[in-house]
Design a protein that fits this description.
574 residues; mainly alpha; two-stranded antiparallel sheet; 32 helices; globular
């Protein structure tokens, strides 16, 4: 729990913040602050009014509309740039401060927020409840809950929105104890106060405390949102039985409650129950469809995702960025390049915003479907590149045999100071294995420690495959023995595969002994090892042993997994 300084510390904070802007004569005591506010009535904002001294109503409305428009589109950076632009022209509208502070909070740019705070102090409008509350929100959302509390303590008057903002700030920054203390001091609570407490504790994983607050909500303040945040709290934490109990007890349900249940079941891989909930929705909206389509795609039900997408459009719903990202994922999983291209054309035709998720989806779809030229074209045109799009390109090159390009992109990623993750290294190591870059692979493997990444069994499997393909079977075997974890089917399979390629019968026999000593229930896929051993013996003319392997497979009931292909007939996948 945070221990807060005495009241004078709040004034010191504002004085230090404003520096010599205020001329060192800023009011210190509560009485002085009230007098200062009274003596400067022209600098106090009037809530609900568009008039701010020094500028006309039309100027404020014009800039306010522009910044609100940017914020509604999620373009917080553009909103901040617009404000900075007309400030440089000498335009000064303090009525815009709450909107600009909202943009600062969305971007976590506390530096710009402090600059605006200093302007408010200089002009004496930091006393205004609306600006003060906006400052409390801004500091808390930027992770600076200490300064948020200082602003809160400094405010000469606060309303319930201010108290809610401070409580929300504590909860978002993981200080539940301080949130509870402040909650208990409140003389008046609204439905939002209770919702913040329930939602805050649920998001921190403490659904027990969240439920206690939910049960204590006064009946006159308990509304559909109160019920929904409790349902979502349970669902987000994977407690679907508790979520279902609250959900079924709701006197009325909104779209978000239905979507929370669908998403919750999908996260638990219970797609059937998610669909059952979806089918019960009396009137659906886009959020409900997105929850279902996304859930299908995330659980590998790609054909069902595309089918649901078609039905959604047939019901007259227009896709948004969330829909498109999920549909592109389904196309990439199925390798449906033509379908993916149609989605890309739809994005352009309907003017769907190319946010980070849509661009990542396009790069991933083209890369996985083998159209690396288009994948690279989109990648090179992206204004911001995160780890996911780098991984898509590196993996695409690796899977489609362009190992040198994969290594080149990995080097570019490091040069751009973008931190690679475990998936990045898995793709690069796979590229090294298929390209025969042994030295590069060993060096890249050792680099994982530099980034503080944990080396998993899949990374070891790639390295063993790399050494085996290069004929360094003894080194690969020694690595298996040194691994910090128990080798699985894939690791033994990679080693046996190398033995088959290089006809190393001695090592193959040793591997068989190791497998025999291991847990017989190591995996349900052990039949692949029998097939490999049979092929190894057959290739070396040891027909008797090859036949024994095949008989073992028959006696254990193993059957060859039939191959399958996917072709497009018209608009359907067969």
């Amino acid at each position: 729990m945070t221990v807060w300084p005495a009241g004078d510390e709040s004034w010191k904070f504002v004085s230090e913040l404003s520096g010599d802007i205020t001329g060192g004569s800023y009011p210190k005591t509560q009485l002085e602050r009230e007098n200062h506010k009274t003596q400067n009535p022209s600098k106090s904002l009037k809530q609900g009014s568009d008039f701010y001294p020094g500028k006309g109503i039309s100027s404020l409305s014009k800039w306010s509309h522009l910044i609100r428009s940017y914020l509604s589109q999620g373009a917080s950076r553009e909103a901040l740039l617009a404000y900075s632009g007309f400030r440089r022209k000498g335009v000064y509208l303090l009525g815009l401060a709450p909107l600009v502070l909202k943009a600062c909070a969305a971007l976590s740019t506390v530096k710009h927020g402090k600059a605006l705070h200093a302007e408010s102090v200089k002009n004496g409008v930091d006393f205004d409840v609306m600006i003060g509350t906006s400052l409390v929100c801004m500091y808390a959302k930027c992770g600076d809950v200490v300064d948020s509390r200082k602003v809160f303590d400094y405010m000469p008057e606060r309303n319930v929105v201010t108290w809610n903002a401070m409580i929300c700030g504590y909860l978002k920054n993981g200080d539940g104890k301080s949130a509870v203390l402040l909650f208990e001091k409140m003389s008046k609570r609204t439905a939002v106060t209770w919702i913040e407490m329930i939602d805050g504790f649920a998001k921190s994983g403490d659904t027990g405390t969240a439920r206690r607050f939910f049960d204590d909500v006064p009946s006159e303040l308990r509304n559909v949102v109160t019920w929904t945040v409790m349902v979502d709290g349970y669902a987000s934490n994977g407690e679907m039985e508790a979520a279902r109990e609250v959900f079924e007890g709701m006197p009325e349900r909104n779209f978000f409650a239905w979507s929370s249940m669908i998403s919750g079941y999908c996260k638990k891989s219970n797609v059937r129950e998610a669909r059952a909930i979806f089918d019960r929705i009396p009137v659906r909206n886009l959020v409900n469809w997105n929850s279902l389509i996304s859930g299908y795609a995330q659980n590998g039900f790609s054909e069902e995702a595309l089918e649901a997408f078609g039905k959604m459009q047939a019901e007259g719903f227009e896709p948004d960025e969330v829909t498109i990202a999920s549909v592109l994922s389904a196309c990439s999983q199925l390798g449906l390049l033509d379908a993916g291209k149609k989605v890309h054309h739809m994005i352009n035709r309907k003017g769907i915003k190319l946010n980070q998720f849509v661009l990542n989806g396009l790069v991933d779809m083209y890369a996985k479907c083998g159209d690396l030229a288009n994948a690279r074209l989109i990648f090179e045109g992206m204004p911001h590149r995160n780890c996911a799009c780098w991984n898509s390109m590196i993996s695409g090159f690796a899977v489609h045999g362009q190992s040198r390009e994969a290594l080149e992109f990995f080097g570019r990623m490091e040069d751009s100071h973008k931190r690679p993750d475990e998936i990045t290294f898995l793709s690069v190591l796979s590229a090294c294995a298929h390209g025969g870059f042994v030295s590069a692979g060993l060096e890249i493997f050792s680099r994982m420690e530099k980034y503080g990444l944990i080396t998993g069994i899949k990374h070891y499997g790639c390295l063993i495959d790399l050494l085996g393909r290069a004929g360094r079977i003894k080194d690969a075997y020694d690595l298996v023995k040194r691994m910090p974890m128990k080798p699985n089917d894939a690791v033994w399979g990679a080693l046996l595969g190398a033995c088959r390629v290089h006809l190393d019968m001695e090592m193959a026999d040793r591997v068989v002994e190791e497998i025999a000593k291991a847990d017989p229930n190591i995996s349900s896929g052990c039949d692949s090892q029998y097939v490999l051993l049979s092929n190894i013996y057959a290739a070396s003319d040891r027909w008797e042993k090859a036949e024994k392997m095949r008989m073992k497979m028959v006696n254990k009931g193993f059957q060859k997994t039939p191959g399958c292909s996917s072709i497009m007939l018209g608009n359907t996948s067969e």
